[in-house]
Amino acid sequence: MPTHLPDNRAMLAFAASLIGVGMLFLLASLMTSTQAQQSQRSAIVLTVEGAIGPATMDYVARGIEQAEEEQAGLVVIRMDTPGGLMESMRMIIRDILASPVPVATYVTPAGARAASAGTYILYGSHIAAMTPATHLGSATPVQMSPMPNADKPEPATESDAKESEDEPRRGSTAMERKVLEDSVAYIRSLAERHGRNADWAEEAVREAVNLNAQQALERNVVDIVATDVDDLLQQINGRSVVMVSGSQTLETANLVIKQVDPNWRTRLLSVITNPNIAFFLMIIGFYGIIFELSNPGQLFPGILGAVCLILALFAFQVLSVNYAGLALIILGLALIMAEAFAPSFGILGVGGIVAFIIGSVILMDGTHQQVSLPMIGGIAAVAAGFMLWILTRLARFRRLPATSGIEKMVGRGGIAADNFQPWAGAPPGHYRGHVQVSGERWNAVSNQPVQAGQPVLIEKVEGLTLHLKPTDDQRVP
User: Fold this and answer.
1) The pTM of the whole model exceeds 0.85
2) Can you say whether the dihedral through the CA atoms of 350, 353, 354, 355 is positive or negative?
3) 205 near 184, Cβ under 8 Å?
4) What is the three-class DSSP state of 324?
5) Which regions of the chain are under pLDDT 50?
6) Where is the composition biased (Basic and acidic residues) (predicted)?
7) What is the pLDDT at residue 1?
8) Best CA proximity match to 84, nearest among 147, 141, 148
9) Cα–Cα distances in Å, from 113 out to 107, 190, 239?
10) DSSP structure string for 199-265
């Protein structure tokens, strides 16, 4: 029986209907997902631990940018910091104040602190919150921190004593006063913007005072004391905060917490801007380039040195570096290397080690970014060992008998460069010519005829003339 194939038009219509139904389901799922995302806004949570620096600044800036892109309802900065760089702190506060998304800085976990730069960031945030058993304060700039004054004479009068007590409030030098007054004006402006206790903020800068969480809440330094992020979101729901665009009411009760960790770029920046890492990169970079210059064509030491030196210079650019200290370090390393190429019996080496140690100690400005003394001592010890090795080898070489020079040519062999000929006025049986010895051309005389290319043996050296005799030994040295 004949087979009837289905009509092509019917098959096309069936396929089109299937595609249409699939597109409708896809569109519906996309709309549902979008509505779910809109109904489930998030709270972006950033975690800042340790000293405030360029890596922290980059991390917070990227977190706020991500919150803006995702239309998040809040950015929460979980903070535990001893302080950090003033420039990085100011950039973080600038990003917070300009953020279209409200930012809550939350000092947590229990035992954490928002000291120094952390206090400023707390004051600059739209919401300031703390966990019980945390504290903030000590906001005096590090240049103004009290130093040991055991050698300072006792005040002679009561007025002198009062003046000595008031000195930290004013600053002892013109530059310190400028830094202090600038910091006071800055933190007061942040406090007044968000309606917080400006008088205590000034006291924290001038006197380096501290408050715990409950005291800070009672004195209107912070807005909330919360046990965790969920508690924080519930407590600030419905609060009004001051944004760039004006007053905004927070809706945080139903926000979904989304933790955002630092990416690889931020982690790399955090590593290379560590003062100890930057210091070590500089040492590796310097010696790598020196070794490449002393042994051209090796490539690897030069490439490694250049990369390390560039990374170190980048780190020094964003860190607070004392350039006098950097110059002393470079001078010290140069003197240590000079000892290897132009031995001075330790004078250059010792001077280089002293310059290196002093420069390393004063390299970094600030309490939270010092190069560790064990690292400085370790590198100085390696440099001292290197110098001692050079001096030992130099002394050993000086005790060895001479292995070159005219006095050592007697008994050595050479090759006649031409046919020896008698010369005018020469005694009978005396011949003169030239000889090649160790690649050098010498004047020579002999009591026997010598043919070009014939091996000869040196018997005596007289001035710059060799006395020799022909030999049949082809193995002459």
Assistant:
1) no
2) positive
3) yes
4) helix
5) 1-3, 5-6, 32-38, 144-153, 155-164
6) 151-175
7) 46
8) 141
9) 6, 19, 25
10) HHHHHHHHH--EEEHHHHHHTTS-SEE-SSHHHHHHHHTT-EEEETTEEEE---TTPEEEE----HH
Q: What is the DSSP letter of 81?
A: B
DSSP 3-state of 370: coil
Three-point CA angle 374, 380, 381, nearest 5°:
85
> Residue 157 has what pLDDT?
47
Q: Which domains does the chain have, with CATH numbers?
A: 42-143+174-263 (3.90.226.10), 265-398 (no CATH), 406-470 (2.40.50.140)
CA neighbours closer than 13 Å in the CB half-sphere of residue 151 = 1
Res 51: pLDDT: 87
* Backbone dihedral angles phi then psi of residue 224, each to the nearest 5 degrees: -140, 145
- Partners of residue 75 on adjacent β-strands: 44, 103
- Secondary structure (H, E, C), 155-171: CCCHHHHHHHHHHHHHC
Cα dihedral across residues 182, 185, 187, 190: positive or negative: negative
Cβ–Cβ under 8 Å, residues 476 and 456: yes
Q: Which two tokens stand for residue 372?
A: 């560790």
How distant is the alpha carbon of residue 471 from its chain centre?
Answer: 69
**Burial letters 61-96, b for 16+ CB under 10 A, else e:** bbbbebbeeeebbbbbbbbbbbbbbbebbbbbbebb
Helices vs strands, H then E, count in the chain: 15, 16
Side chain identity, residue 469? K
**pLDDT at residue 20 in the model:** 65
Q: How confident is the model at residue 270, as a pLDDT?
A: 82
- Do 471 and 413 touch, CB atoms closer than 8 A? yes
Q: Please report the pLDDT score of residue 152 as a whole number.
A: 45
Q: Quick check: 435 and 444 in contact, CB under 8 A?
A: yes
* Preceding omega of 109 cis (within 30 degrees of 0): yes
pLDDT of residue 151: 43
Classify residue 33 by burial, with Cβ atoms within 10 Å: 0-12, 13-18, 19+.
exposed
What are the strands of the beta sheet with 135-137, ordered from one edge? Answer: 113-115, 135-137, 210-212
If DSSP codes are grouped into helix, strand and coil, which group holds residue 398?
Answer: helix
Place of tokens 């370790």: 378
Distance of CA 32 to the CA centre of its chain: 48
CB of 139 closer than 8 Å to CB of 202: no
Q: How far apart are alpha carbons 121 and 205 in whole angstroms?
A: 13
